[in-house]
Write the structure tokens for this entry.
Amino acid sequence: MMNTAERIIQLRSMKNYTTNKLAQLAGIGQATLRDIEIGKKNPNITTLEKICQALDISLAEFFTEPQPNPVIREENEKYELPDEVKKEIALIEEFVLYKHGIKKAGGKN
């Protein structure tokens, strides 16, 4: 589970907010938010509520980390797929990983 600082950074990044923008929206000092994000300070409940409000989430949502979506490979394992379908899926997966620079040509990472 993430700590408070990591969760704020994650949520701020998801909104594409800078530290300055989030601080302004929350009505807190940029230095205060920076200290919270580096773990130098812990926010009190009032400050955390302001941050959540600026992020347009509830406190409950703040403390609930999203569950990752299952990977296609895990989904496909739920079904009995013919070998030719499994091969096609593997080729598509390799293509997409290569296209996004996650996997190098020739199958090497």
The chain has a mean pLDDT of 84. The two ends are 28 Å apart (CA to CA). The chain is about 60% helix and 0% strand.
